[in-house]
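Sorry to interrupt, but I need a hand with the structure work. Could you add the entry underneath, on a fresh line?
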Amino acid sequence: MGQRVWIKRALLLVLVTTVVACGRGGQRGTVDDSTSPQQIISYAEAEVARRKFGRAGDLYLEIERLYPYTVEAEYAVIQAAKAYQAGKKRIESRAAAQRYIDYYPAGEYAALAHYLVALSYYDQIVDIGRDQENTFQALQALRIVLERFPDSEYAALAEPKFTTALNQLAGKEMDVGRYYLKRGQYAASIGRFAVVVKEYGETPHRPEALLRLVEANLSLGLLVEAGQAAAILAADYPESSWNVAAQRLISGGR
């Protein structure tokens, strides 16, 4: 009988301990107006460590809600943007980063905020056969990072992404230009290829764009314009196969 009582007491103790532990676990990360910014930051950091990035972002934003216009709020908004980005919550990351830019345009983390806005678009770039709105937005945001914060670490990170986005847009122009060219819409194709040559710098698509300008202009009987494009191609890319093809077209060969 005594043994049964002892077992019951032991089981009751285990049950009480479990309930208390669960209760404490349930309170972890719970935030109200009595929770200090430092406590909330520690909760958010714990969620980041657990790779619960969305929850971490939400917690960081609680600091801004409870303690607006404080140093902790400024820090928390950018940390929320970082956490959401890590969790691939790109819309939420962009919103938090843009909020930082709006409220702290000259803040300590302004370069990072602009870079996170750019990343939110850059990470959604799709192949050239589809709409390139995200590519365009990424390019604009990356340009801001490069122009306003040229000496920051984020400019170094932005530069190769800027080149990639630029080449992506040039590729889209080429894709549309080829479409028009194949269908005999030469004037429309010339407009696309000319944009690549004039506005996209030393993109890898430039030599082909010059060749296609030769081809399209010849098809319209515009010999001077075709010759000008061929001359640029010969001067800038003398060893390329595109130049060989262009010179063949100019000379009347096929």
